[in-house]
Amino acid sequence: TVTTAQVPAVPGDRIVPEGTMRVEVDEGGFDRAFNRVLDTATRLGGTVVSSNATSDDEGLTSGTVTVRVPSDDYDALLTAMAQIGTVRDRSITSQDVSAEFVDLEARLRHNQAQERFYLSLLERAETVEDAIAVQQQVDDIQQAIEQIEGRLTYLEERTSFSRLSVELFETGSAFEPNTADPTFARY
User: Fold this and answer.
1) With CB atoms 3.0 to 4.6 Å apart as the test, which of 30, 86, 96, 175 could cross-link to 24 if both were Cys?
2) Number of other CB atoms surrounding residue 54 within 10 Å
3) How many Å apart are CA 54 and CA 65, to the nearest integer?
4) Edge-first strand listing for the sheet containing 161-170
5) What is the pLDDT of residue 8?
6) How far apart are CA 164 and CA 100, in angstroms?
7) Could you give the CA distance from residue 19 to residue 77 in angstroms, rounded to a whole number?
8) What pLDDT does 173 receive?
9) Low-confidence stretches of the chain (pLDDT beneath 50)
10) What is the DSSP letter of 59?
11) Distances (CA, A) of 74 to 13, 51, 64, 186
12) In whole angstroms, what is the distance from residue 62 CA to residue 177 CA?
């Protein structure tokens, strides 16, 4: 069964696309398919996040490669992966983090304004006690700013790059689900 659930992105939205594809390859074709996934990710300016492979008792190989590529190249990655073998399952999702971006940017501006205010108070502090009290406020605000900036950086990276896990399995391998037994575990 091949299913796709992708939320269309509106230009300017902060969208995090992710997905999983299960691709069946011919017996003995795992290494070639695995290398095509790696080559495609590299060609598209991406990188490998993780990978694993295993062989069953019959010598058939299966495994998973997770790659990330620039979000603008995600459709090209999906198209290339579909050409490696027979797509048995596909699940593509998108998470819209636009509202979180707007909220974080507003909180950042607010905290930066507070930081400027307290720094000006610190310059005018007349006693050590006043300076210590104001410095504690500045420290708290600077910590909040660093946390917000860290989250914004993380979200920027997540919206700039898309992830795809490609599960590859050779025909007849243990990785291939047994449709006659509904309790069969994929992994």
Assistant:
1) 86
2) 12
3) 12
4) 47-55, 61-70, 161-170, 15-25, 86-96
5) 42
6) 23
7) 11
8) 77
9) 1-11, 178-187
10) S
11) 16, 19, 18, 26
12) 12
Interatomic CA distance for residues 177 and 79, integer angstroms = 24
**This prediction's pTM:** 0.69
User: Burial level of 10, CB count in 10 A (0-12/13-18/19+)?
Assistant: exposed
Q: Rounded to the nearest 10 degrees, how much is the dihedral formed by the CA atoms of 82, 86, 89, 94?
A: 0
pLDDT score recorded for residue 59: 85
* Distances, alpha carbon 57 to alpha carbons 32, 42, 97, 164, in Å: 20, 32, 45, 28
pLDDT for the residue 176? 55
Bridge partners of residue 91, in order along the sequence: 20
Classify each residue of 130-160 as buried b or exposed e, where b means 16 or more C-beta atoms within 10 Å of its C-beta: eeeebeebbeebbebbeebeeebeebeebbe
Phi-psi region of 172 (alpha: psi -120 to 50; beta: other; left: phi over 0): left
Decide the pairing of beta strands 15-25 and 161-170. Answer: parallel
Contact by Cβ (8 Å): 85, 28: no
pLDDT of residue 97: 87
Task: Give the per-residue pLDDT at 4.
Answer: 39
